[in-house]
Structure formats: C-alpha cells, structure tokens
Design goal:
globular, single chain, about 40% helix, 5-stranded parallel sheet, 4-stranded mixed sheet, alpha/beta
Length: about 190
C-alpha cells in the first residue's frame, strides 16, 4: 500500500489551504483526488479538483469494492478510489488524502499505517465565519455543515495528530513537521 497522509476535519476548517501550502513546501507529495456526487463549484475542474460522478456511477464503484473509503457528507457522497492511490503513489512519494472524519475512520481500518492528522478550528464561531465567508453554500447547507462539524470536533481525540488552524503559517509549520517526521519524505 502507498504511504498515505490523511488530512481530516470539519468542512471550512481550511484543509485545502493547508494542503496547498504543505505541497508548496514538500512538492514531492502527491494529492489524491476524491470522487464525489456533489455538483462542481465555480472554478472546479473534473479529475483535477474531484472526480465528479453521478450517484449511480458512484454506487457502481461502491458495489465493486473500488473505494478505500467512502462517506455521505452534507447531502453528497465522497470517496477515495483505490486506483487513484495506486496511480498517485507509483513514484514512491506519500499521497495526501483530504477526507471527512467518517472516511478517515475507514482508512484507519483499511490502511492502519496511514498518518492521520485532524485539523481543528480555533473555535466554532471561527468555523462559522469561514463557511459564511467562502460564499459557496446556502444558509441551510452552512447550518448542516456546522451540525456535522460539532460531531466531528468531538472525535478529534481519536487522532494521533491535531493541528489547530488559527494562524495559517503556524498550522502549516506544524503540518510540515508531522509529515516529515512520519513519512520520511523530504
């Protein structure tokens, strides 16, 4: 199995921003592209940001056992295709997975050697402000994401590594340290 680094945490906590900064500092890291049934947001590209699929296509992959993990989240389905990990790790570099807490738990069972990092907000209020500020979700979607976030925040003790994303540079420094120490990657 590939060396994997799972980055998880509530929606809006800044996982994507942290991963972009991590990859700028550690360019050999590969990023796993997740599959999803949600609609693309403005500017998102098929097979670059996500593998966008119909619910039927997603279910066919589930039935065939093609996912390392998959979860329902905020009204859509998300998953990591086994073939995606194999392709991304072909050069030997660690693969970063940006996934939800449900998926991280599944990866813990299927790939116990994977490094798991939980990204936490400095507060629930800060998380709400980030979700509202990004302007991509309707108010009812934001409330659903916040309800899910409260449950996810209660799970952070399950993770060996927790990074609080309060000041971006500090959080990136901490994430780089964790990845370097646990994957021997650069």
């Amino acid at each position: 199995m590939p060396r994997a680094v799972v980055i998880t945490g509530p929606s809006g906590v800044g996982k994507g921003t942290l991963i972009r900064s991590l990859r700028e500092r550690m360019p050999d890291l590969q990023l796993s592209v997740s599959a999803t049934t949600r609609r693309p947001r403005t500017g998102e590209t098929q097979d670059e940001d996500y593998h966008f699929m119909s619910p039927e296509e997603f279910e066919q992959h589930v039935a065939a056992g093609h996912f390392v993990e998959h979860a329902d989240y905020a009204g859509a389905r998300y998953g990591t295709l086994r073939a995606e990990l194999e392709t991304r790790s072909a050069g030997g570099a660690p693969v970063v997975l940006e996934i939800e807490v449900q998926g991280a738990r599944q990866v813990r069972r299927t790939m116990p050697e994977a490094v798991q990092v939980f990204i936490a907000p400095p507060s629930v209020e800060a998380l709400r402000a980030r979700l509202v500020g990004r302007g991509t979700d309707a108010p009812e979607q934001i409330e659903a994401r916040l309800r899910t976030a409260e449950q996810e925040l209660a799970a952070q003790d399950e993770f060996a590594h927790v990074v609080v994303n309060d000041r971006l540079e500090d959080a990136v420094d901490e994430l780089v340290e964790i990845v370097r120490a646990t994957t021997a990657a650069g």
